[in-house]
Amino acid sequence: MILDWGGTIVGLGIVAFFFLQWSGIQLLSTQLAELGSVDLGEQPGWNATAARHEAFDEASRSYESALATIVEGLRGAVEIKSYHRISTFFYTFFILLRFFRGFLGQPYFASIGRTLAAAGQDLVHLTIMLGVAFENFVFSGCIFFGSGLKEWSTVNRSHRSALAMLSGLGDFAAMYELYPVAASVWLFTFAVAVIFVSSNMVMAIIVDHFGEVRADLGQGEQDIVTQSRALVSDAVWTGSFHLRQIIRLLEEKIPKLKLVFPYLDDEPVRVARVPYEVIIEALDPNCVDESADPLASLKTLKELASDQKRANVPLWVKGQPLWAPMQRDVLIACGCDESTADRLLTKCDSIVSGKRPQNFQTDILYHEFEGQMRNSYEQLAATEDDLRMWLSERKIDCDNLEPRQRKLEALTVERIMPRPQEDEPMLMPGSEQEDWDQDEEEDEGGEESNELRHALEGPRSFGPDMLTQ
Asked: What is the pTM of this model?
């Protein structure tokens, strides 16, 4: 805003000075024309009458007065011309600053401008130190060589000589001829303190701030070639949409053209302009650090709910955390149509693809962890049916454990014999197959025997093939 108003004021000053200069020149031309028509006549002689002398003196005074007015007018015109040139000179700086402001739209150019702005404070302090050192060398040179060299005789000439030495145009031979040791020491210390140290300090400050600016630039850096390619792609994308709209209009007006033009599907109406201001407002964080004050976002949302000026941004969009990624629904809620939202997401993906910031913040790491956990949840949800089937089979097996236990208890009571005495023979129980045959003969056709047998055998899924199913 300051740049715009400053350029406007200086531009108006240029116009005003030009008008004053033009009007002054026109007035001077009129006055010169009138002055040229004045005829003083011959100077009266000594024998002329007193009236003749008075008339000549009056005409001379009028002529000199008009001539003085013209001279003052010329002096004013020259002064106005100098003001006009100064205003034009300052206006060129405003034009240069406008170019720099336009460069902010290109990330690489913007990084250079922001580097100079960030390093401005350090450069000011360095300039103060450099100025003090330079003045010290100026006065020391004036003291050393002022008595023998005209170039160092006064402070003003010493400043010019020191600047000449700084640019390599000074006369060191004359200084060395006058005082060899003092001239050598002065030149060595001047070169080290003013030239080498100061230039390296400036370079170090610029490089340090440039690295910080490039780090803050993040993933959105684009060179001018990539940005030009993106602009051309956007122009083609927008132009193709308008071309399809024209073809649909022609097909609607002239149905026979449908045989000539290709078939086009219906498309939703696109927004005339991408609402970047609304999107930036939606991305504005509710608080600086959510971890330090978790309730800050809720407090801000309550304030926004009562604020009618921000009704163009939905509250659910403002309620998202700072680390939340940009989504299609957010762009649509901010005023974009579906095609434009998809286009913006595609461009963003192409720009930041394969790029990562140098330093991962805690919120970003938390978001990455939450995303990985969400993917794991989705993979587990895909196996939900298999897990349900497996658990149902295991439930059947668990239900069969109780009948099997009862059968084992019955077998324990019926089949296990007491230990014989010492004089009694050893009891030999029958084989398992004979026992089963006997049970089948006793309980043939009975359902209870089948259940007990199933319980005794146990569930089939507990066999060795369970893991291969």
From this structure: 0.48
Q: Is pLDDT of 68 > 50?
A: yes
Distance CA 260, CA 454 (A): 77
Q: Which amino acid is at 36?
A: G
| Measured CA distances, 426 to 419, 429, 432, 435 (Å) | 8, 10, 18, 19
As a whole number of Å, the CA-based R_g of the chain is: 49
What amino acid is encoded at 265 in this protein? D
Confidence of residue 290 (pLDDT cuts 50, 70, 90): low
Query: Contact at 8 Å (CB) between 112 and 211?
Result: no
Cα angle: 126, vertex 131, 133; to 5 degrees = 95
In sign, the C-alpha dihedral spanning 280, 281, 282, 286 is positive
Nearest to 443 by CA among 396, 402, 410, 467: 410
Q: What angle do CA 191, 197, 201 make, to 5 degrees?
A: 150
Q: Are the beta carbons of 57 and 44 closer than 8 angstroms?
A: no
Q: How far apart are CA 228 and CA 224, in angstroms?
A: 6
Sign of the CA dihedral with 206 first, then 207, 212, and 213 last: positive
Say which residues have a Cβ less than 8 Å from residue 441's Cβ, sequence separation at least 6. none
